[in-house]
Amino acid sequence: MVTANVIGSGPNGLAAAVTLAKAGVDVTVYERNATPGGGARSVEATLPGVLHDHCAGFHALSVNNAFFMDAELANFGLEWALPEIQYAHPLDYGHGAAAYRSVDQTSRLLHDPAWQTLFGPLARHFAKLSADVVQPMLQLPQSPIGFARFGLRAGLPANVLAKAFRTEQAKALFAGVAAHAFRPLHTLGSSAIGVTLLAAAHAVGWPVAKGGSQAIVDAMLKALVHHGGRVETGAHIDSLAELPAADIVMLNTGPRAAVDILGPAMPERVAAGLRRFRYGPAAATVSLAVEGGIPWTYEPARRAGTVHVGGSFAEIAVVEAQITKGKMPDNPYVLVGQQSAADPGRAHNNVHPIDAYAHVPSGYPHDATELIVRQLERFAPGVRERIVAQTSRTPADLEAENPNFVGGDIVSGANSMDQLLFRPRPSFNPYRLGPTGVYLCSASTPPGAGAHGMAGFNAARSALEDLQR
Questions:
Q1: SUPFAM superfamilies, alphabetically (predicted)?
Q2: How many CB atoms lie within 10 A of CB 47?
């Protein structure tokens, strides 16, 4: 029987393991922590009964993607839930903007027809678009015309694309989603991640896993066991020599960690490319237990699953540029997850779990709780008095929990234009690491961060194709 070792049990490691096991490979997953799941775990971070998502909370690229359909995770208990409003962006004085599933409704409420013009075609053809977006860029797209339409928008600096909008609300709504890239909004390609997530919001929504992101991991683990695989926890692997021989090895690690694990077995040209891989700014997180939820002045934000906090397009552009230069702003961009808006069962005795993080410079050494709460208070006066419990994590805490988050970079690599196109190094097959049967399958490979599992799925499919050859 063909055998495989998978190092790391985050969503991509588990996706690779499930894909291989389903194909008849004898798979063992090795996880350094006591609990599998990586960034897709859920924990009672504040109060008993109040479940917080450890990192990833909403999963826009997971619905109906190739991995989730192939793994049939619904058969293993995974259910999705959608909020009424996919994401919202409060502004000062009670103003704001919101993204609904309907692109027409969103455009109409924004009083800005450019929203429909730019994003309507992408949303209508999202199934074909997403199939291309989640693959390495150095491949022929399945839908060349649709991908070209996407590229004309995605390749632009976000501040250039924003000029198409005539209202400040539309510009701010776009800024909030573009800022997911952790990049200055004036740089080439800074629209790419925002455009992708926007199209997903209108096509399939930004769902949560019912019961928390841990439900995704639980379903993957059940699928893995069903197909004959296993997980060994508490297994910290520093070298392939520590593992039994296997036909396939999957590394759900950062690129530089892969160089260390493989050592001289990795060709120097591959190792040199991986050593050049760059990481971006960091996140500093806070988990809040909020009685009654956040009292946003902009009422639609109370019904949104995700809320982008940062003010106008111009304000967000300034602070995103600051963090990439190593400067911590007093008014950081904050992403707020209100999972109970989609999954009411997440609230406990009217106490709602709120998971928020601020964009901060790489390695920022301080607790950002006060900065985050101050930003919330700006758009939701009185929220401070509703907080009944809280915990926080610095970038160093995040990296200690998950070494793939180097410097606190939760997207596992800078989203500069070159790395958007060629992460982790220029290659027609970015998953292969040189030695026969060894592959990188982490979020540092295409299509990047998220609990969508596609990096692991793509790497596993590459391994299976190589075996057939």
A1: FAD/NAD(P)-binding domain (SSF51905)
A2: 17
Q: Is the alpha carbon torsion for 356, 294, 327, 172 positive or negative?
A: positive
Cα 332-335-340 angle, rounded to 5 deg? 150
CA separation for the pair 208, 319 (Å, rounded):
28
* Cα 172 to chain centroid, rounded: 21
Domain 3-40+59-74+211-278+413-468: CATH superfamily, name plus number: FAD/NAD(P)-binding domain (3.50.50.60)
Q: 50 in helix, strand or coil?
A: coil
Residue 69 makes CB contacts below 8 A (sequence gap 6+) with none
pLDDT tens across 84-136, in order? 999 999 999 999 999 999 999 999 999 999 999 999 999 999 988 888 888 88
Task: Please report, to the nearest 10 degrees, the dihedral formed by the alpha carbons of residues 81, 85, 88, 91 taken in order.
Answer: -150
- State which amino acid sits at residue 449: A
Cα–Cα distance for residue pair 338/56, rounded to 1 Å:
12
pTM for the predicted model, two decimal places? 0.95
Instruction: Please count the CA atoms within 13 angstroms of the CA of 257 that sit on its side-chain side.
Output: 21
Cβ-contact 152, 143 below 8 angstroms:
no
**Nearest alpha-carbon partner for 258 in 31, 461, 8:** 8
Sequence ranges of the domains in the chain: 3-40+59-74+211-278+413-468
> Whose CA is closest to 220, among 433, 460, 434?
460
Which residue in this structure is represented by tokens 């790391």?
A: 8
- The three-state (H, E, C) secondary structure of 284-345, written as one string: EEEEEEEECCCCCCCHHHHHEEEEEECCCHHHHHHHHHHHHCCCCCCCCCEEEECHHHCCHH
Tokens of 365: 């050494």
**188 SS3 class:** coil
212-228 residue pLDDT tens: 999 999 999 999 999 99
Distance CA 20, CA 2 (A): 10
